[in-house]
Design a protein that fits this description.
Helix content: 25-40%
Structural class: alpha/beta
Number of strands: 9
Number of helices: 5
Strand content: 15-25%
Largest sheet: 5 strands, mixed
Distance between the termini: 43 Å
Oligomer: single chain
Shape: globular
């Protein structure tokens, strides 16, 4: 009888160890206001109740940004009906070129439920600082004149507006889908 009780206790302890751990609340992020792709003020707090994926980039980006948006298109497909509870927020780090009209046209190229945000240099810098994101203009000899080196992290924000997961640029679609489902 003692062996059975010990075995039962061990099984319960192992089952408890397999419970998913709660996601940590990270110290980056927070509410902000910028201008959306329709030229209207956008408050991040308007997305409460949804999982939000935030990333910083720019429409002239030759590699990271289109790859990220394509990956998020795949994430959207993989989420199925849960995709309706997820919003992507794409914040430009090149507000001089990324006007609302440019952001709107660019986002139209991808199948992602996204809002494109721009603003003044100071407003963008403030939001980037909140998220611990960095960016820097790099002059080039190209026709574009410059590129912008920037943070490639994807910030996962839960329905209460708290940053819970930082996805690396290299994160596969399945990892992002699992992270989103953990926040839903």
């Amino acid at each position: 009888m003692i062996r059975l009780a010990t075995l039962l206790s061990l099984c319960l302890a192992l089952a408890a160890c397999r419970q998913p751990q709660p996601l940590p609340v990270l110290s980056v992020g927070g509410d902000f206001t910028l201008t959306d792709q329709n030229g209207q003020p956008f408050q991040s707090s308007s997305l409460r109740g949804q999982v939000v994926l935030v990333f910083f980039g720019y429409t002239f980006c030759p590699d990271v940004c289109p790859t990220t948006l394509s990956k998020l298109s795949a994430v959207t497909r993989r989420l199925g009906t849960d995709a309706a509870r997820v919003k992507t927020v794409y914040i430009t780090v090149d507000p001089a070129r990324d006007t609302p009209a440019v952001m709107r046209e660019h986002l139209g190229l991808f199948r992602v439920d996204a809002v494109g945000l721009t603003g003044s240099d100071a407003a963008i810098a403030q939001v980037a600082q909140q998220f611990g994101a960095a960016y820097e203009i790099e002059p080039t000899d190209s026709e574009a004149g410059y590129l912008v080196a920037h943070t490639t992290m994807l910030y996962g924000i839960d329905p209460e507006g708290r940053t819970r997961i930082l996805f690396r640029y290299e994160a596969p679609v399945d990892e992002i889908v699992d992270g989103i489902r953990a926040m839903l």
